[in-house]
Specification:
The structure is a homodimer of 369-residue chains. The first copy, chain A, is α/β, with parallel strands linked by helices and 369 residues long. Chain A folds into two domains: 258 residues, 3-Layer(aba) Sandwich (Rossmann fold), CATH 3.40.50.1820; 98 residues, Rna Polymerase Sigma Factor, Chain: A (Orthogonal Bundle), CATH 1.10.1740. Chain A has twelve helices and twelve strands. In chain A, strands 1-4-8-5-9-10-11-12 form an eight-stranded mixed beta sheet, sandwiched between helices. In chain A, strands 2-3 form a two-stranded antiparallel sheet. Chain A has a two-stranded parallel ribbon with strand order 6-7. In chain A, helix 2 packs across helix 3, helix 4 runs antiparallel to helix 5 and helix 5 crosses helix 7. The longest helix of chain A is centred in the middle third of the chain and has 16 residues. The radius of gyration of chain A is 20 Å and the shape is globular. The interface between A and B is large, with 59 and 59 residues.
């Protein structure tokens, strides 16, 4: 088991070569924090790359070091689970631009100070470049599958489009090949909320006594609403009051949904860097696989040999089914094998993270028994 | 024309009696700024009260004194228009809590300083109380109709429920009788954006050099997205870039939709008071006609003699058709005459303000030729 010796469960790789970015800039000494689960087979043919969403990280199925909570896809990844770590060697890196160990705006630039807003603007493809470099370092040239939800799904699609020889299977959940205007709009509001906070200080808040927690919390609150369905908000909270018998006629969090959102906003700031939020949402806004490939989405997939599985959720209004359908049409146009399913689940966009047995079945089936 | 002499086009009424509020508090010396159009008939039977939405004002069909733009419903109100000022005496007050002349948090309290957050939390019914007092002062005991979109529609419904002898016709567009959880959530985010701005200063920013414009702009940007449909954002902006040939790889407003939103946020702060935004959205969150009437919505309408017309728009995801349907059921349950139409229009919630000929026809028809 020579491979097991070099593949620890939790590691940070420093890339030997500089990373050339879509912006034309390059980054030296890029670090990629990642976790692995399971064992790479002798034939090195059982690797599954899992890409995380906007505010996710490498703690896929391990306890989060800050929140103490289970990994964000603990229910999906593990022995005997749909992404079965008894069979697959599962790799989950923190994205470039992130704040959980991979190089991002909080990292030190060559001059010894944090990059802050000197960090180059990155793209989804840049994130995937770093992931491809990680795979190379791990000696993995093909993936049994690449899997991701939301921004993770976009990385999976970018890998298939730009490194078509790597993934044998591509599973993109609640994702899109082109970021639509409404999502760009919500992403912009989030960034404006951060940048409107005087504690943001043009991004130079590292080591400062004040950090843009208030702005970041507002950004998170807005985003959080978009991740849920109207029906799930109604069912979970409705107009129920929080620890009181009647309205306060004040500006406290009278309603449970208000209290919940405030908590979501506040707790997010304990685990996420505001500048990372700016860079990652910027990368999402820029994402347009069609534009990257001459304007026709089908052209993005001409070289692929992979099988695709696309999944959407009927209550997801942020990445609605229509976006997946467009990808199906593009994949059909180039004759790529694609299965598509719209799953009925009540939780909106966040359905990919939650208890949706139909999702488990599709993932299990697509990865193969 | 004795009536015309006392009814100028633009006036402010100071209520002779204190206003008793739902909170149990009372407000003395309440001022209601309002505009009127047309002439009150000798029989005083042709008055139409138009109630404005969250950030609207009394400048219904007159040039706005700050923005210089036409009134917010200029296309709907005027000679020969659906709300025909040749036939109707149209009254549009600025709501209690507003910032265009009616008493609100920016007004001076009896101690000579601005109320700021000492202003009592108000409800939609309190707004309507002030409007009823205005009608009394104008010598109007019955309305040919009360009309409103969004929060204006809620005021119309509140009038019908609580002062059932006043309106003969109730026209509520893109409204609800009970604020749903998702809307409460978006309203809370807007307030948090304002209150997170250090320039808000606990609301005591009047006369200060810094005002919470940044926070209010973020609140407005978020709200603005919810007023539009995904399709209209795509059609209007898509992923088109703003005055540039390619992405800047920076945090400028690269996309037209980003530039548009920033402009919307910024320009809003020139005409709206941040504390008013807090109080008005609080009133909206609290709105629940069913709760006000013992828990059953139908009971809110038991005493009404009015005819109702409810209108929703198929692309309005903020106040979807389902909310209007619930009102139809409640009105049916008490045998109230109600017509309901879901209009197909591309502009989302804002459709009630925009060029929708089908809306004009329904309004014209309901008000009667």
């Amino acid at each position: 088991m020579a491979t097991a010796a070099i593949l620890t469960a939790n590691d940070v790789l420093t890339l030997a070569k500089p990373l050339e970015l879509d912006s034309g800039q390059r980054l030296d000494g890029v670090r990629i924090a990642y976790e692995t689960y399971g064992t790479l087979s002798a034939a090195r043919d059982n690797a599954v790359l899992v890409c995380h969403a906007t505010t996710g990280d490498q703690h896929l199925a391990s306890r989060h070091p800050i929140t103490g909570k289970p990994g964000w896809w603990d229910r999906m990844v593990g022995p005997g689970k749909p992404i079965d770590t008894d069979r697959f060697f599962v790799i989950c890196p923190n994205v470039l631009g992130g704040c959980m160990g991979s190089t991002g705006p909080a990292s030190l630039a060559p001059d010894g100070a944090a990059y802050a807003m000197r960090f180059p603007v990155i793209t989804i493809r840049d994130m995937v470049r770093a992931e491809v470099a990680l795979l190379e370092a791990l000696g993995i040239s093909t993936l049994h599958a690449v899997v991701g939800g939301s921004m993770g799904g976009m990385q999976a699609l970018s890998l298939a489009a730009n490194w078509p020889h790597i993934p044998e299977r591509v599973l993109a959940i609640a994702a899109t090949a082109t970021m639509p205007a409404q999502n760009i709009a919500f992403q912009e509001v989030g960034r404006q909320a951060v940048m409107a906070d005087p504690a943001w200080q043009g991004g130079d808040y590292y080591g400062s006594a004040s950090t843009p927690d208030a702005g970041l919390a507002v950004a998170r609150m807005t985003a959080h609403i978009t991740y849920l369905s109207e029906a799930s908000l109604t069912q979970k909270f409705g107009r129920r009051l929080q620890d009181r018998a009647s309205k306060s006629f004040g500006f406290d969090a009278d309603f449970q949904v208000e209290s919940y959102l405030r908590h979501q906003g506040l707790s997010f700031t304990t685990r996420f860097d505001a500048n990372s939020y700016l860079y990652i949402t910027r990368a999402m806004s820029y994402f347009d696989l069609a534009e990257e490939h001459g304007g026709l989405l089908a052209d993005a997939f001409r070289a692929t040999k992979a099988r695709f599985c696309l999944i959407s959720f009927d209550t997801d209004w942020l990445y609605p089914t229509e976006l997946s359908r467009r990808m199906v049409h593009a994949l059909n146009a180039v004759g790529a094998p694609v299965s598509f399913v719209e799953i009925s689940a009540p939780f909106g966009h966040d359905s990919f993270l939650l208890d949706v047995p139909a999702l488990d079945r599709v993932v299990t089936g697509f990865l193969g028994r």
